[in-house]
Write a structure and sequence with these properties.
Layout: H1 3-44, H2 50-64, H3 67-80, H4 85-98, H5 100-110, H6 115-132, H7 137-162, H8 170-179, H9 184-201, H10 204-216, H11 222-235, H12 237-243, H13 249-271, H14 273-283, H15 288-307, H16 311-321, H17 327-330, H18 349-368, H19 380-412, H20 418-453, H21 460-485, H22 492-518, H23 524-552
Helix pairs in contact: 1-2, 1-7, 1-18, 2-4, 3-4, 3-12, 3-13, 4-13, 4-15, 4-16, 5-10, 5-15, 6-7, 9-11, 10-11, 11-13, 11-15, 12-13, 13-15, 13-16, 14-15, 18-19, 18-20, 18-21, 19-20, 20-23, 21-22, 21-23, 22-23
């Protein structure tokens, strides 16, 4: 074989693989957009029930055609405490079963003689649905899904055409045969090869498609193909572990549990390798790709059936593999609900962003709760310590805004539904106003510090007024926090009522303040500090109502 022939084969194969991967991405994103909100709700409300977790992971992965997407989301949810670690392991197990649907799609639709022609009417139907239902996001998403499926079949057809006929090259056949001639050691070798290829490709669907094609063309035997598939199951866990690098302790544990589950599954299967090989050959004696797809399903179903009874033990292992971080390490900020992995799950990650924003709101409430403490300090050192703590919170809010804005902007620039785009715009406004609330709280603390430094003392009446203003703003913050829990049930009336009470009280304080200045009730320093404080509280409240208004839009 000439060098030019080899280069041509590589170029053709790479191009065909690119079409296949793009089709998988297109189909997965279309499915996410068509059912994304329901998927987010189901996964977001998951409990620790083992069977529910397995069924949920299986259903979501089968629907969105990406086990990596499911496991990356799970890493984020368990990292934040939305899922228990045992519940996360159950979802991950179910995701492994759900991913077997991909192999059946490729085998049943992609390896037939007319698969490329079969995709043409599907492509036309998808384009028609996009044009016929332009104003309906869900129908456009369904159309995108069908386009993705049809392109996937085209990609498989191109891959088949790009695979060279090596029957005329005895040396290549001999090389492959030699690797297969070491019995059980050959099986282990191809398990390793499958894991490495999937790690490099970061797409188990692509390596599965290539394995099926090599088996279909007679390059490898069923035993080698099964070994490659087992390796692919280990290799696909790398995605979640990459996502977990920036996650917290529980997120890392969930990703590690995914790896352990697949390694144990492969080990158990290797023990009964030959009986399983004989079983799938007996079911499909004349169709090796169907036998391989059957094995893939049996492999995952059997592993889940066995290992689901040992979830507590898996949790025990990963807990000891990854111990709790020290208190100082846990103070370092990172996105909690959002897993920044290499998988595109824009629609599904909206729920993660929502939870991250809720965490942001809780942080602001904790920060605000420190303000009343400023009046109770006994000396300048205590005051400085408290203001420094509020300053650290303020820096944290800056970091959270930056990270959330970066994330929301990234997914907003991708392939996302109209509703998802509107929600991202709303979340960006919410994030900006939450950060402004943090700035306002810090400014109030600085005003309090300057008042203390300048030996400015308020009367009981002025202190009582500021305490009442503090209480009114706290009420508004709690309404805001409640509204962020469920956008569909946001109570804008309650938010507006809290804002009106604050404005009315601010107007009352302003009128009383002007009268007090006319009659020299207190001096300039007292009046300046007092008016600055109630004005800052009212400004803070403006940002609070902006959040609820952004939720309602």
């Amino acid at each position: 074989m000439k060098l030019t022939d080899i280069l041509l084969i590589i170029v053709n194969f790479t191009g065909a693989l690119a079409v296949f991967l793009f089709a998988m991405k297109l189909m997965s994103e279309g499915l996410q957009k068509a059912a994304g909100s329901k998927m987010r709700t189901v996964l977001g409300k998951m409990t620790g029930n083992r069977l529910n977790g397995i069924l949920t992971g299986m259903g979501i992965t089968a629907a969105i055609q990406s086990s990596s997407a499911t496991t990356v989301m799970v890493v984020g949810f368990v990292n934040a405490g939305l899922l228990s670690l045992s519940g996360a392991v159950a979802v991950i197990m179910g995701a492994n079963i759900g991913t077997t649907v991909t192999a059946w799609i490729i085998t049943l639709l992609g390896l037939g003689e007319g698969s490329g022609y079969f995709s043409l009417p599907m492509l036309l139907a998808a384009v028609s649905s996009v044009f016929l239902f332009m104003k309906r996001d869900k129908m456009k998403s369904v159309g995108q899904t069908i386009i993705g499926l049809s392109l996937l079949l085209v990609g498989m057809s191109l891959l088949k055409g790009a695979m060279p006929d090596i029957s005329g090259y005895p040396s290549m056949l001999h090389g492959i045969a030699s690797l297969s001639g070491y019995g059980f050691w050959s099986v282990l070798l191809f398990v390793l090869i499958g894991a490495i290829l999937t790690c490099l490709a970061q797409a188990s669907a692509a390596t599965m498609a290539i394995t099926l094609l090599m088996l279909h063309n007679g390059w490898i035997g069923l035993d080698v193909a099964i070994a490659l598939v087992m390796g692919e199951n280990i290799g696909t866990t790398v995605t979640a572990n990459i996502a977990a690098i920036v996650a917290g302790t529980n997120g890392k544990r969930a990703a590690r549990a995914h790896l352990i589950f697949n390694v144990i599954g492969v080990t158990l299967t290797l023990i009964v390798f030959h009986p399983i090989l004989l079983l799938v050959q007996a079911v499909f004696p004349n169709n090796a790709p169907m036998a391989l797809s059957l094995f893939h399903t049996l492999f995952n179903v059997m592993n889940v059936s066995i290992q689901s009874w040992f979830i507590p033990q898996i949790v025990w292992i990963v807990t000891r593999m990854i111990p709790e971080k020290s208190e100082n390490e846990n103070k370092e900020y990172r996105l909690t609900y959002i897993s920044r992995g290499p998988v595109s799950t824009a629609e599904l990650n909206l729920e993660s962003a929502k939870k991250e924003i809720m965490l942001f709101s809780k942080l602001v409430l904790q920060m605000y709760a420190l303000l009343p403490e400023l009046r109770r300090v006994h000396n300048a050192k205590e005051l400085d310590t408290l203001v420094e703590e509020i300053s650290r919170y303020e820096q944290l809010t800056d970091q959270m805004e930056m990270e959330l804005t970066k994330f929301l902007t990234a997914i907003g620039g991708g392939n996302i539904s109209g509703h998802g785009s509107e929600r991202i715009s709303s979340m960006l406004r919410i994030t900006d106003n939450l950060e402004s609330i943090g700035d306002s709280i810090y400014q109030i603390s600085l005003t309090r510090k300057h008042k203390y430094s300048d030996a400015v003392h308020f009367s009981d009446k002025l202190n009582a007024n500021l305490t009442e203003m503090n209480t009114l703003v706290e009420k508004a913050l709690k309404v805001m926090d409640h509204n962020l829990a469920d956008y569909n049930l946001a109570n804008l009336m309650a938010a507006n009522a809290a804002e009106r009470d604050i404005n009315a009280f601010r107007n009352q304080l302003r009128a009383e303040h002007l009268e007090a200045l006319k009659h020299d009730v207190y001096g300039f320093e007292v009046g300046n500090a007092y008016s600055s404080l109630y004005a800052q509280y009212e400004k803070l409240a403006d940002y609070v109502i902006n959040v609820s208004e952004a939720i309602a839009t």
